[in-house]
Write a structure and sequence with these properties.
The complex is a heterodimer of chains A (254) and B (288). Chain A is an alpha/beta fold. Helices cover 30% and strands 26% of the residues of chain A. Chain B has 288 residues and is an all-alpha fold. The chains are: A alpha/beta (254), B mainly alpha (288). The interface between A and B is large, with 43 and 36 residues.
């Protein structure tokens, strides 16, 4: 079996007033599509921030076989954050300029973008159907269009691992479906690995291979998507602190 | 008047200094504004007053340092203040704006002490407060030129990192960009620009030359490169025209330059009504 792309061992993270993540261990291998689900405040985004080196947790994180503090090949990873949709819309920057930012990590200091890089920007924008709007100011676009631009920025470097932290938060519901259609197209490349933090797993259940369910910062469930759906109603309900019913829609639990 | 600028060396020095400042201040100002650091420029300029006042005091007290150019100590003070502001911002993570009044008060307090120790305002000091047409020396021009070259080299080398940091700090960190290094160098460069700009615009008005041309460009520029370009155009027009008018009417150049920059902003905002531009901050959401 191939070496995990992400390997987390006994990870814990504390905010000053409380423990947010407690003894998390998991592994993500090449080609997997991991969905991280859980209630608000269950530690999903904190876990992502730890993986990306934005927070310093206890325990160990290895990316592409290297300890996080020694890992420097960040161009292999791209990240679409929750905040992508809530940036300063007055910022004077065009669609093209935003997507170019996705290439900066690989370029390194002092190096400028070249013709080949412009081609990559074009391809990424064409993938998300935004090439025609390349000269538009990003703040002038609709929420759905902005999100497509941020996906293009994440794609432009042809990353091996895409991490998406609730990328549809703040985006109009009518664009959410469109977003997942793009994700489905990206999924066609089976070598690429995805980690998606989401509230609506039913939207992506066709793409997901594995599920991590966090409950109050602890690992409630870490299993394949089939096993996740096969958990009986009582077990799924036990994962949620609020009483509710498990609904079935078109043969899938939602 | 053109004849005067052709004849008098001091006017030529002032003109060259104005040309360089009209370029560098809005150039670095484009990044200062989009990083929401406009007020930091104000704090730095006020701290620079302390350096200038100290230099004038030392020049008056120590005869061997009588010829010391106040710009040098002004530059040193501005750079130290920039690093201190950054340190204070890291100490008050949830109240970062506190660094500005703390440093501003420190600078003004020290400035007031040094000025009173030197027995009040001299003409030299007044020229640093509101800018000067007549007191720009060849050494000033060389110092301003060196700083202008540093700014151009810095922005050229770090353009993409600065833009990324300004637009999306979290993403830039995830990309592995050495943000702390870029940020510290940026703060030092901002301090340098403020220190050199005060020769023409004056300490009290220097931050406006960094922000006003950018404020006008932001009204219509769609890309960041266009914002920089138009900021420089507005900056150059205001400084050169302001300097010429200040000479013609014997007024403080700082005042003229800043009022012209304000006028540019008013013209751009008025023009929006005629060309159907949108009001800043209200975006038009178009359907996908």
């Amino acid at each position: 079996m191939s070496e995990p792309i992400i390997e987390i061992n006994h990870l814990s993270y504390d905010y000053p007033d409380r423990r947010v993540l407690s003894d998390i261990s998991l592994a993500v291998r090449q080609g997997e599509f991991l969905a991280i689900v859980g209630e608000n405040g269950s530690g999903k985004s904190t876990l992502i921030k730890c993986i990306l080196g934005l927070l310093k947790p206890e325990g160990s994180i290895r990316l592409f076989g290297r300890e996080l503090d020694q890992f420097d090949e960040w161009w292999r990873i791209s990240y679409v954050s929750q905040k992508a949709a809530s940036f300063n819309s007055g910022f004077p920057v065009t669609v093209e300029e935003v997507v170019e930012m996705g290439l900066y990590a690989k370029k390194g200091l002092f190096k400028r973008l070249k013709k080949g890089d412009r081609t990559k920007v074009r391809q990424a924008l064409e993938t998300v159907g935004m090439w025609d709007r390349r000269s538009s100011k990003v703040g002038d676009l609709s929420g759905g269009q902005q999100q497509r631009v941020f996906i293009a920025r994440a794609l432009v470097n042809d990353p091996e691992l895409m991490i998406l932290d609730e990328p549809t938060v703040g985006v109009d519901q009518r664009y959410v479906k469109e977003f997942y259609e793009i994700l489905e197209e990206l999924r066609a490349d089976k070598k690429r690995t995805f980690v998606l933090v989401t509230h609506d797993i039913h939207f992506v259940s066709r793409l997901v291979t594995d599920v991590v369910h966090l409950i109050d910062g602890k690992l409630g469930c870490n299993c394949g998507i089939k096993e996740y759906w096969e958990l009986d109603e009582k077990e799924i309900r036990s994962l949620y602190p609020v009483p509710g019913r498990v609904l079935v829609h078109e043969g899938e639990r939602v | 008047m053109i004849e005067a600028f052709m004849t008098f060396k001091f006017l030529q020095y002032a003109l060259v200094a104005a040309l360089l400042i009209g370029f560098t201040a809005p150039f670095i100002g484009s990044f200062v504004v989009v990083r929401r650091m406009s007020l930091i420029a104000d704090a730095l300029s006020h701290v620079t007053l302390a350096g200038i006042a100290l230099s004038l005091l030392i020049s008056g007290m120590v005869s061997s340092l009588a010829g010391l150019n106040p710009l040098y100590l002004g530059i040193v003070t501005a750079v130290i203040a920039a690093l201190l502001i950054d340190w204070l911002r890291s100490k008050y993570r949830h109240f970062q704006e506190l660094a500005i009044p703390i440093m501003m008060a420190t600078g003004m307090g020290l400035g007031a002490i040094f000025i009173s120790m030197a027995n009040g305002f001299s003409m030299d000091l007044v020229s640093f407060l509101f800018g000067t047409v007549s007191a720009v020396t060849l050494t000033d021009v060389y110092t301003i030129l060196i700083v202008a070259v540093i700014v151009i080299v810095f922005v050229s080398l770090f353009y993409k990192e600065l833009l990324f940091l300004s637009f999306d700090e979290e993403q830039a960190r995830v990309s592995g960009i050495r943000l702390q290094l870029v940020h510290v160098v940026f703060m030092i460069v901002v301090a340098l620009v403020i220190a050199i700009s005060m020769r023409i615009v004056g300490i009290l008005l220097v931050s406006s030359l960094i922000t006003l041309p950018v404020a006008a460009a932001l009204r219509f520029a769609k890309s960041f490169k266009a914002t920089i370009f138009w900021s420089i155009v507005f900056g150059e027009v205001a400084t050169i025209a302001g300097l010429i008018l200040a000479y013609q009417f014997d007024l403080a150049p700082g005042g003229m330059i800043v009022m012209l920059a304000v006028l540019e902003l008013i013209i751009v905002m008025s023009a929006e009504r005629f060309v159907g531009g949108k009001h800043h901050g209200k975006t038009t959401r178009k359907s996908a």
